[in-house]
Specification:
Helices cover about 15% and strands about 30% of the residues. The protein is α+β, with helices and mostly antiparallel strands and about 160 residues long.
């Protein structure tokens, strides 16, 4: 009987595998599991502290490999959102003075426990929301996280962005 031939069964398995792989490759979003939970931009108020829940998917871009701890914003509604150690979130990793303060963060939430990307961070200072930054007085350059000045290699000092 042809159908019981083991060679036919193998061929069938290969054809099936190709069909599955092709359908995954052709999926428009290109995503596997993450496509179910799209990114969204939200504004949260809360406090940034070391996360007590581990961020998922270590080793993905934007996730601190070298940092022992992941920072998270503990939102006023009780949610804990891990934040990425990137341009927008690095100040919370490098400057302990920025932790434990009342902050308002505009961020892109990635879902699936992956760290969120901070677009804008403000901290409550004397009753107002202010933008924290690190500033070189010599070159009048402001950056978003602690570092030596790219221009003069001098120190950059914390300040709130002047209000207009
Ligand atoms: Zn400088």
């Amino acid at each position: 009987m042809r159908l019981s031939n083991p060679e036919n069964g193998l061929r069938c398995a290969i054809v099936l595998a190709i069909a599955v792989l092709t359908s995954i490759a052709l999926r428009p979003s290109g995503g596997f599991v993450f496509s179910q939970e799209p990114s969204r931009t939200i504004t949260v108020e809360g406090v940034v502290k070391p996360a007590t829940i581990k961020a998922a998917a270590k080793g993905q871009p934007g996730i601190a490999e070298s940092q022992a701890e992941t920072m998270a914003v503990f939102a006023a509604d009780g949610r804990q959102i891990p934040i990425a150690d990137d341009e927008g979130g690095r100040m919370f990793y490098l400057d302990p003075a920025m932790r434990g303060r009342e902050v308002r963060l505009k961020l892109i939430e990635k879902g699936q426990g992956r760290p969120a990307e901070i677009i804008q961070a403000e901290a409550r200072h004397e009753g107002r929301w202010r933008v924290p930054q690190y500033y070189c007085d010599v070159c009048t350059i402001a950056v978003r996280y602690p570092q030596v000045c790219l221009c003069c290699q001098g120190p950059m000092e914390f300040r709130y962005k002047p209000e207009r």
